[in-house]
Each structure stands twice: as structure tokens, then as C-alpha cells.
Write a structure and sequence with these properties.
Blueprint (H helix, E strand, L loop, with lengths): L6 H14 L9 E3 L12 H21 L4 E3 L8 H19 L11
Parallel strand pairs: 1-2
């Protein structure tokens, strides 16, 4: 929940939990929801500009920290949900091909 004032602590707790489970080496995608709450409907132009700059700064920060493995979505407004689905599918395909490599020219041994 990107709108939560302690969202960075939440990320830290998740990362610590993954590490304690022995899963910190697995591919991860950091998804921040509720981006729609970062801008208020009642904002005037100056305030809206400041809110947009704050959001852009958050996106840049997390992109750097996660090697571009962060997405910012809003389930309420459907913002970036297609990108999320596409990214998850790409990640699953990558893991699948690593686990089950296929060479169409390889002759199975008998």
C-alpha cells in the first residue's frame, strides 16, 4: 500500500520474511498498490503538480532499489494492471525455461 506512511517498513518486513524462509534468492516483483491515493481529486493545479512529482520520485527511487523490478498499480482505477499481468507472465516464463530447458535439436538418449 504505497499510500501508507510506513510503506518502506512494510517492504523491509516482507524482505526479512522472504530471507527467513530461504526465499530471498527467488525472482521478486515489488508491487505498490493504491497509487490513486497519492493524488487527491480535490487538488488544485499546484498541489496536483507536487503530488505527481512526489509519485515520480517514489517510482524512480524504487526502480533503482529493485533494478526495475517494481510496479505501481491501482486496483481501483486499473492503472498498470495489464503491465502487472504481462510482467508476471514474463517472470513465470523465464523461471519455467530455466527449470525446463528445451532444445528442439537435442536428440533424447535412449
Amino acid at each position: 500500500d504505497l499510500s501508507h506512511e510506513h510503506h518502506e517498513h512494510h517492504v523491509q518486513v516482507v524482505n526479512e520474511t522472504l530471507q527467513s524462509l530461504g526465499a530471498s534468492d527467488k525472482p521478486t516483483l515489488l508491487v505498490f498498490n493504491k497509487t490513486d491515493k497519492l493524488t487527491s481529486d480535490e487538488a488544485v493545479n499546484g498541489q496536483r503538480q507536487a503530488e505527481m512529482e512526489q509519485r515520480k520520485a517514489l517510482e524512480t527511487k524504487w526502480a533503482k532499489q529493485t533494478n526495475d523490478q517494481a510496479l505501481f498499480i491501482s486496483a481501483r482505477t486499473d492503472e498498470n494492471l495489464t503491465s502487472l499481468k504481462r510482467k508476471l507472465l514474463d517472470m513465470v516464463k523465464t523461471v519455467y525455461h530455466q527449470q525446463y530447458p528445451y532444445d528442439p535439436y537435442q536428440i533424447p538418449s535412449a
